[in-house]
Amino acid sequence: MQTIEKCNFAGKKVFVRVDFNVPLDENFNITDDTRIRAALPTLKKILADGGSPIIGSHLGRPKGVSDKFSLKHILDHISELLGIDVAFANDCMGEEAAAKSAALKPGQVLLLENLRFYAEEEGKPRGLAEDATDEEKAKAKKAIKESQKAFTRKLASYADCYVNDAFGTAHRAHASTALIAEYFDADNKMFGYLMEKEVNAVEKVLNDINRPFTAIMGGSKVSSKIEIIENLLNKVDNLIIAGGMTYTFTKAEGGKIGNSIVENDKLDLALDLIKKAKEKGVTLVLAVDAKIADSFSNDAKTGFCQVDQIPDDWEGLDIGPETEKIFADTIKKSKTILWNGPTGVFEFDNFTHGTRAVGEAIVEATKNGAFSLVGGGDSVAAVNKFGLAGGVSYVSTGGGALLEAIEGKTLPGIAAIRGY
Ligand code: AMP
Questions:
Q1: How many CB atoms lie within 10 A of CB 54?
Q2: Of 118, 359, 363, 406, which is the most buried if we count CB atoms within 10 A?
């Protein structure tokens, strides 16, 4: 397989798919440029070789052309970070994009306008009437798939090589993240450095496991994590369940959870997961106590109680001190650690303690030689909030993509390049 390190881009035009879907404030200032910085090594390598990157990205979820989602808002910042003036094409299709791509000289960079201004990027029909018949829907779907081919071919025509450095969208079979790869031969398509690092980190957690292996699954709902939890039961020694999904397990086992968040239709599923864990010899580590609040608010009255004894009208918004200790002990004894999702409502300052304690235990385990992978939007926000990112082995930029990879799914963006 071709690699970015081996490839010499001298004189080549390179379509680089990045994930520059950065958060912007109401004045279009970038509030967090992590995703842009993460792609710099790839862009710089192409430039240093004497190649010309043509950058393609999406921003937000536009339903058509929209100033709000224009990549021109981030153009100056990209120029600043690269230390050169980046050119801009106001449309990723059409004469301008083709002419500006063709005119690029070695060492010059072009940023294309938001790829998702075109429905063809995602390949999903837009503007269908709500009462559209199945036949109309099928027709629209067929039409967009057809025009997607032309769209993809056009994007591919700008460049000699294709580099995918957008791990965040690797789980989508979109035009620029997967389909485009077929227009380049094996020597001219490859992962960027970021993508390579992400793929390696996932493979290490899935295939090169030092034991004990502990996964900490937090967040709000069991339903959104069910597949990954089931998959992890085949891999881990310890599975720590934290966050809002705790209470579905507690209620399923007959505990009193007051007003805590719960999925009543997932109680059987929770019992089934407990049973499966037992059968597979996985230690399921559940909370024993909770920090409770009399309303869902940072200013609520608070207290601590056993996790299955939460009074009516109160709700669990974080783990309690006993649970923190149990979680930390398990984590510190681990040699491979995967963390996704906070232990509580960490957005409220009064309910950050458990999440921070888990983060600190992971940092300590990492110091003692464990490999730790943190991923999925909220856990990344948490390690950043507590200044712990530098103390873990790898912080993934992928949310959905990371979870799908760990579920064992083939990601289209990865398969398009390496074939599996
Ligand atoms: P997810 O997107 O599923 O990873 O969930 C992350 C969200 O779960 C965060 O916004 C947390 O505030 C929320 N969360 C964690 N613990 C609780 C809890 N005990 N009650 C309600 N929400 C929670």
A1: 28
A2: 359
Q: Which letter, b or e, does each residue of 162-172 get, where b requires 16 or more Cβ atoms within 10 Å of its Cβ?
A: bbbbbbbbbbb
The number of the ligand 1 atom at minimal distance from the alpha carbon of 340 is: 4
Pair 228, 176 in one domain: no
pTM metric for this prediction: 0.85
Size (the chain), residues: 420
Confidence tier at 377 by pLDDT (50, 70, 90): low
In the reported structure, the alpha carbon of residue 262 is separated from the centroid of ligand 1 by a whole-number distance in angstroms of 11
Gap from CA of 243 to ligand 1 centroid (Å): 6
pLDDT for res 399 = 81
Count of structural domains within the chain = 2
Residues 141 and 167 in one domain: yes
Residue 280 has pLDDT above 80, yes or no: yes
Which residues are marked as active site? 35, 221, 377, 400
Q: Return the closest-CA partner of residue 319 out of 214, 213, 244.
A: 244
Pick the atom of ligand 1 nearest to 247's CA: 19
Greatest Cα pair distance in the chain: 69
Mean pLDDT of the chain: 95
CA of 266 to the centre of ligand 1 (A): 17
Q: Which one-letter amino acid corresponds to residue 406?
A: I
